[in-house]
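#struct-pred

JT: dropping the chains for the assembly here, can someone run the whole complex?
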Amino acid sequence: MAANKDAAHQKPLNLVEIAKLAGSSKSAVSRVIQNQSGVAPEVRARIQHIIRVHHYRPSLFGRGLKGSRTGLIGVLGRFMESGFTAEVIRGIDDEVKKRGGHTLVSFAPGIEEYIAFWRSFVSGGQVDGVILIAPPVDLFNQSVGPSDRPTILCAAEPPKKATSWQRAGAVTVDNRSAMDRLVHHLVIKGYKRLAHLAGQPDIFDTQERVRCFEDAIRKHPGITGHVLQGAWTSELAREVVHEHLETHGTWPDAFLAFNDAIALGTLQTLQAMKIAVPDRIGVTGWDDIPFSDYAGLTTIHLPMHEMGIKTAEILYRLLEGKAGDLHAARRAKLEMPLKARRTTAREHS
Amino acid sequence: MAANKDAAHQKPLNLVEIAKLAGSSKSAVSRVIQNQSGVAPEVRARIQHIIRVHHYRPSLFGRGLKGSRTGLIGVLGRFMESGFTAEVIRGIDDEVKKRGGHTLVSFAPGIEEYIAFWRSFVSGGQVDGVILIAPPVDLFNQSVGPSDRPTILCAAEPPKKATSWQRAGAVTVDNRSAMDRLVHHLVIKGYKRLAHLAGQPDIFDTQERVRCFEDAIRKHPGITGHVLQGAWTSELAREVVHEHLETHGTWPDAFLAFNDAIALGTLQTLQAMKIAVPDRIGVTGWDDIPFSDYAGLTTIHLPMHEMGIKTAEILYRLLEGKAGDLHAARRAKLEMPLKARRTTAREHS
DNA sequence: CTGAAAGCGCTTACAG
DNA sequence: CTGAAAGCGCTTACAG
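RK: done, full complex below.
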């Protein structure tokens, strides 16, 4: 009685104490925690009971020090601006929590810094695995070592030539089919001169969507396509679009933006220039952020939260050795539906 | 030569190896790392050089195990939806990185879960300190133990009666002056019957803004104020506002929303009901998310990124024992400017 | 100023 | 199935 101090503020128990309480040894407790065989059923039950009663959780540090699993998942992002990274992280954390782990996040906007962080994550022995959100493509010039912790890419796929990266996991979206859907929609609506506002240049999705855009244009005779670089943010888009319209005689009749933020910047410029949307010029985004619904922006729905979950799932699959050599087990590609709204809702012309 | 394998994939060095290379002892290296006195200048320089050359970084786990500083900062959020949490986290991480630490983030939407996570953070010995972003106010019914790791509140302030919480750090925003500014602006614009759409009920800012709103109304004779509950998300706002206007004979002539998302939902409803903004009804938000500029929404600018930085700064101040007993050293309150835009831009009526 | 030694809480061969 | 023992990489009294 007297010895039982305020329960909330006691120092947490450790392995030895649990073992003592269960009348067993450290080794047995350790085996039970890790769900390993080699413990008599009654002993196991007794230990599990004690663990539950005392809310015992093995120390991160004792574990980490032995070089085995630490329960820490490293997540590396570049920006928080678009909401993409934020939602993906929430998805990852949902899955990591389920497995009793912790999410270590960091942000590194610059390429050098990004790669340095990845290196230290992957070879530092602090995390079980690392998830890279929309990494700079230059990353693939680095090589992955055989003893490196597993890396999963979210929204990127390593190029074929990057051989050391082939064993990495990757969750991507089906840019090709979404782009086809989007271009087809615009064509149906009677738009004929499409301009694609490309995203940040060193991002996988940017590069892939440019390729898919050009391929899609080729499939539609009579439709022209044009890629505009340099408009990767809302602000830049305002400038680039303004300048383009000011200096070009022939206007595009639809702007197909890399993401919703860019599309919204474009809409602002068109509004300021009193150019009718969707009649004179149509506008599409990509992502389907909450405000796109409000703005009536036609866009492609990107399942960010689901991407996060999927990415973490694949990481755990690799950690548990369940992926084997199957390439398919380490890759996932998600579909993205089209959301047709006001900014392309013109009558066929 | 032959022994020098591919540098990128080597196992990282440890303390002993650094000591050997520097021709010194573990103890000396440890002291240098921690910037402690008791090392001869030349020895210190030699060690620092070796550390730099080999990019040595002390292991998180070795450190953590000794029960001293781990370099890990725990961050607990509830949702990512509004962009608030995301931006705050980025600010925190910026500051944590500066100090060579790592940010451990987790999300717990439910109250029980939130408190359980906080408890395990604060007494588990895994993190040096914890930052709680917009915690549920029920948290203050819990008591903070003297041996608990320091907790810093971001966007919350403990009530006076919660004595054990008085030593906690807190970064808040000046809701009172911002609310005064906002109400004054509306009054100047000729709005007379204000309705405040309150936020999620168990949040400090929600409760404080309701109080400030009511106080502000009292200062303006002839102006009436009314608090509408239940509209904490964009979707809910659409329903609540619609229902309110349908069932009430006397309409408010301005909706003052808890945040921009709520304000945008309100704008959608007004638009759908063909009610003229800002002439018939004015609308204001709070946060100044990027989209509000586009939407022409009058709002209060909340410095989210700065809040994150400030919160981490205070945490480090406590960790370094620099706060002493000064209450002021553990508290910060940030100002929020008014952004007057189209949704209240009516001529004086 | 210096360094040998103990110990933090685990995991993992190893011997019984 | 069981448990004693070594060791992971640090920090911190402690003695010199």
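JT: nice. The first strand of chain B starts at residue 72 and ends at 77. Residues 19, 24-28, 37-40, 43, 61-62, 64-67 of chain B lie near DNA strand C (CB under 10 Å from a C1').
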